[in-house]
Amino acid sequence: MNSKTNTDKNIRRINFLDYVRILAFLSVLVGHKLFAQHSSLLGADNHATLRFFAGLTIPLTWGGLAGVILFFLTSGYIITHVLQRERTSEFLIRRMFRIYPLFVAAVLLELLLNWGINNVPFPPVSRLLPTLFLIGDFTGTGYSLGGVEWTLRIEIIFYVFMALMRALGVILLPRLVVLVFLICTTLLYFANPFPRLGLWTDGYLNLYIPFLFLGSILYLYEQKMIQGWLFFVALAFIFFLHLKLVPKISPSWKESHAVFYALVIFLLFWCGRERFSKLPIVTFFSELTYSIYLFHNWIWGYLEKIVQSFGVNFISLNIQVLILLTIVCYVSYRVIEKPGIRVGRSISKHMNAYSGSVFRSKQTV
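The structure corresponding to this sequence follows.
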């Protein structure tokens, strides 16, 4: 009975995250490619009610930041759940095969199209390798994929950090986990901004990795591993330091309520997590969120050219581009991302089986 109950809870939790992921990628997609259309609803020629609702939703799409925060909160939450049952090596292998195959394919495809269509030369190996390994912040290498790569770099840092916590056994001590997160958030607040590439993402580690911590802390609270007061103290502390840090590192964002919107939305979805049912259309688009995130910002222009050459006049250009983007991302998911995930699972299972057999052999001896 308890096993069935726990399974049901896991299903409901996954369902709630599917909805959050879709909202997150819509925020990013509209913010990057359709913000002009969205903000045009604020025009004086539109009805006051339409302008009112447009004004309410602009913070959700401006720059796509709200969507990024939602992704970080989701990642912190689910990674903590995963690490309750996966060993360090298993965790790292599965994450590697979940992230890298599609990312590497997307980067190489972008370079190939830029070279074949726009005559942009391939970058030197000294720049390409840090990009492909998502370690460009440590070599001063700029971003690929229309700039969205920066969020993956922060994810990789978080994965390594959490793997280290798992290897040391810290992840199994919930209060210590929260303490480590709050200490790291404080150190990041006082530390020099990292990275420093002279781009809009300067200091993103200082500004945004605490929201991965916050997603993790929420999971610990949900599982009754920590008290409610500790979660709310952590929430207030992380959010307050973020608000104080933004004007120092990224002043262009200090007039935006995007982070506040994202926090409220995530908490509301979390509070109603048991009410979200599994719908095929939601599952479909949730599975495409990673591929859409990787492809949308750089491939959009190429898809526009295809639509302009072969599209139909009675359907909006943007709608046709969105349809093509969905097709490209679905094929990428089926051909590259999903097989990569299966390979990671298979390798981790074989490693577990081998470790188990070695352990049994030692016991026998």
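The CA atoms of residues 16 and 270 lie 7 Å apart.
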